[in-house]
Amino acid sequence: MKLKRIIFSLFLIYSFSYAEISKEYNGNKVEPPENILNEVPYNSEGKYYQLIGKIIQRIDANSILVSGTEHISKVPKEAIIYVEGIPKGTSIAKDTLIDIIVKGDGEYRYTNADGVSKVVVKAIWQNNEVYNDSSTKQIDEKIENSIIKKQYNENGILLEIEYPAKIIPNSYVDFKITVINNLPYIDTKGGITIGFPQYKSLDIIKNNSTLVTKSYPSKSKLWNGNIKQTISSEYFMIEGWETDWKQSQIKTMNFSVFINDSSELKNINIFVRSILISNKIEYVNPIDGIEGQQGYKNVNISIPLIRD
């Protein structure tokens, strides 16, 4: 009987403490941590929640993915929550523990490295207590906003590549590849291919491409246009494809990829190419460049890694 009273007393203490510190935020009721873990994403809009968990991915300067956990539970629960609106100057990193108040903003959709579509709760950061565990790995929170744009106009194809001037390891990096079909032909199909020759597999998120995309980790079956046969791929590649690419139509591949720091690389190399096919004739851009695993020439983009 004494044990039951003690447990009940502890529950009351927790309930009272929670009510005292998190009963409301700016006049709004704040729901307990377990509620956001069980919430249907589109029902979350406008609600306020306490979110306790660990940062599992730093997407960019403004957003993160959090593995949320229930504060007290007989059966541990967890769920992935997308959080944006990180306050300027807040120092956070992967594996950092956080206890924050968030405002639900509907759902967030992304595609993981296996090509599986995920739908999670989207939330807006309100206020925070960020706990930096001394054993967790810290990363440089300095975000470089400089974006480089390069254009290549060859073979009736205008190819534009947008990429960061520098990359901070252990973060998500944005890429945007734009292609315009300037060929004077009908019944044209084609695509854009981006290869990461230093990586066997990568995690893709925030894929807002206007092409149908697919990711290929190493050892995938790919067609080699040079030797005209199927090969086993050596490195990670993402491809976007359009079966009916009309004249003057613009297509983009706009995505983010997680760049880890598993080795002492000084630069990240990216192979980019585009192709249009009309009446079984291939038109490629670039015409000359570095040869990739499919036998086609590529633009080689080299981006420095910044660790200091």
Structure description:
The strands form 4 sheets. Strands 11, 13, 16, 18, 19, 20 and 21 form a 7-stranded antiparallel beta sheet that branches. The N terminus is likely disordered. With 308 residues, the protein is mostly beta strands. The radius of gyration is 24 Å and the shape is elongated. It contains 2 helices and 21 strands.
Oligomeric category = single chain
Our estimate of the beta-strand percent is over 45%
User: Whole-Å distance between the termini?
Assistant: 59 Å
Sheet/helix structural class? mainly beta
What is the string of helix and strand elements? HEEHEEEEEEEEEEEEEEEEEEE
Global geometry: elongated
| Average of the residue pLDDT scores | 81
Q: How are the elements arranged and paired?
A:
Layout: H1 2-22, E1 24-25, E2 28-31, H2 33-37, E3 48-58, E4 63-69, E5 78-84, E6 97-111, E7 117-131, E8 147-154, E9 157-164, E10 171-181, E11 188-196, E12 204-205, E13 212-216, E14 221-224, E15 229-232, E16 236-242, E17 250-259, E18 267-278, E19 281-285, E20 290-291, E21 297-304
Parallel strand pairs: 2-3, 5-7
Antiparallel strand pairs: 1-2, 3-4, 3-6, 4-5, 6-7, 8-9, 9-10, 10-17, 11-16, 11-18, 12-17, 13-16, 14-15, 18-19, 18-21, 20-21
